[in-house]
Specification:
Length: 530
């Protein structure tokens, strides 16, 4: 399974509508859950017991007629809406399911919790009769021993008719949307050994338990059991559709043995090209990406923005983030004209913001960027990596909230300006004859916006604080007011001292006393041979 394969879903990007943010907290959710006999601790007991056993590799049970499907044909297999779980009970949520097929070749067990006793936990039974196979020539008699590959959560977020708003499909991947959004980046349960030469390990959710909602409920609770060669885990997801759809995650992890690299709260996305890295071929679209940057809010209050790249070779960068306040892969522009794509509507794809709910300790946010020739592969991964871990016999507890949003300023300090766009081009000078000429540098144009900049009087211009590593020479900087946005534009021209080595850049706007007016823009200019 490749990174891109694991994240593919046969969903065509249905729109969803956000309801107003719900005004109840986790305490009320937990009170409602006390009516059920099965909960997080039960999953944690299963995860602990599983970690004490040797790992058992799941085996494919697919007949060739399903295993050999291409994506386009697999997407034809759709669960019949009238058979969705709870559809005929007039509940706020219902569930539909994915069929096995293609590289989704092992079933997951899905259970319903619908009462206060152990007898009220039921396995959802698979039957091929619940699926429409379109024009595929499938012999259903050979499918009776198969199962579900994953499931969808449906909710009336765009209208009174239910639409798909959450998907679990493939390894530990899941996607969520809110009002007016289309599926973009994915969350994952856990990342292990990502970007190591030894190869990445893909944990999978092997079993789910979903608490049946009551009429009037505005949330849905999902429990999941994670398994991999190195680790097991118990998860609780509380989904709350809203203006920003929210998922509160509680996790408890157990190790079979030490792991080299643990990635907590991983996010997976796609970046092909954009203004910060224009397309190398002619394309009417100015940008193709699900996310265009990594944002980090460190414990000391600093905000950092790292524009994404589609590198020529694997690129891994770490950013210190002890007990972080938050981080996320963001899609900061939702203007259609920044994408011009009527089919994929990248302007409607949400950002995902991770907010830890307990103290994660010392660690780093790690960004992995993988070369990709097209938009079918997810090539961006971001996660928090602990610096050290306790002994293998100690469980790990990471709780956090994921917000899926198209209102990115909501997840930023309003007193701190942020980067609205980064543009990159060849540096140039204007000659006496007014003809522009290349000067051999790379120019970055960075637009900052925010209330702090709008409030500056016309006689005050922020200062540029620009630094490079040992390999960079900044040949020019300029700050000028951008009357079109109400913000300020910072232009930086840089040349590498050694073109065979990368250049690390950092830039921010400050006042006359050196106080920060903006987040820190961070960028790595790749080496010429990379």
């Amino acid at each position: 399974m490749t990174l891109g394969q694991a994240a593919i879903t046969p969903v065509t990007g249905r729109l969803s509508r956000r309801l107003p943010v719900l005004a109840f907290g986790i305490a009320s959710i937990m009170a409602a859950q006390h009516a059920f006999a099965f909960g997080f601790d039960d999953v944690a007991d299963k995860a602990k017991a599983l970690s004490d056993q040797n790992y058992s590799q799941p085996e494919s049970n697919l007949p060739d007629q399903l295993a050999n499907l291409q994506y386009k044909d697999y997407a034809k297999i759709q669960f019949k809406a009238q058979d969705s779980l709870w559809r005929d009970e007039n509940l706020p949520f219902d569930l539909s399911f994915f069929h096995e097929g293609m590289h989704y070749d092992t079933p997951v067990t899905i259970n319903e919790i619908d009462g206060p006793t152990a007898d009220d936990v039921h396995k959802v039974k698979y039957t091929p009769d619940d699926f429409d196979f379109g024009d595929l020539k499938i012999d259903k008699s050979k499918l009776k021993d198969l199962g579900f590959a994953g499931f969808r959560v449906n909710y009336p977020i765009n209208s009174e008719t239910k639409q798909e708003i959450m998907v679990f499909l493939g390894a530990s991947y899941f996607r969520v949307i809110g009002e007016g959004q289309r599926y973009g980046l994915s969350g994952r349960g856990l990342a292990i050994d990502t970007a190591l030469s030894s190869g990445e390990e893909f944990p999978r959710f092997k079993e789910f338990w979903i608490a049946k909602p009551e009429k009037g409920d505005k949330y849905l609770t999902i429990f999941a059991l994670l398994d991999s060669p190195s680790m097991t885990g118990a998860y609780r997801f509380v989904l709350r559709p809203g203006e920003d759809s929210i998922v509160d995650v509680k996790s408890r992890l157990f190790r079979r043995h030490e792991v080299t690299k643990l990635g907590v709260a991983p996010l997976t996305s796609m970046f092909l090209f954009g203004p910060s890295q224009p397309s190398s071929t002619t394309n009417y679209r100015p940008a193709i990406h699900d996310s265009n940057g990594l944002a980090i809010n460190a414990a000391d209050g600093e905000w950092l923005w790292r524009p994404l790249q589609n590198p020529r070779k694997l690129q891994v960068n770490s950013f210190e983030a002890n007990s972080p306040k938050g981080f996320g892969l963001m899609q900061r522009s939702h203007d259609f004209h920044d994408y011009e794509d009527l089919h994929d509507r990248y302007d409607l794809r949400p950002s995902a913001w991770i907010q830890p709910k307990n103290d994660w300790g010392e660690g780093q946010v790690e960004l992995v960027q993988i070369p990709t020739p097209n938009e079918t592969n997810d090539n961006i991964v971001a996660y928090w990596r602990p610096t050290t871990l306790p002994g293998v016999d100690q469980p790990l507890n990471y709780d956090y909230r994921i917000s899926w949003t198209m209102n990115e300023p909501r997840y930023h300090d309003p007193d701190n300006a942020w980067v609205s766009q980064t543009r990159r081009s060849a540096g140039e000078v204007l000659q006496d004859n007014l003809v522009r000429k290349s000067d051999g540098s790379t120019e970055f144009v960075i637009d900052y916006v925010g209330p702090t900049l709008k409030s500056l009087d016309g006689n005050t211009t922020p200062k540029a604080n620009v630094t490079t590593g040992a390999n960079g020479d900044v040949t020019r900087t300029e700050v000028q007011r951008n009357s079109a946005t109400g913000g300020y534009r910072l232009s930086i021209n840089v040349k590498p001292k050694d073109a065979a080595k990368p250049v690390e850049l950092r830039a921010s706007l400050t006042n006359d006393q050196g106080g920060a007016l903006s987040e820190t823009w961070s960028y790595m200019l790749q080496a010429a041979n990379e």
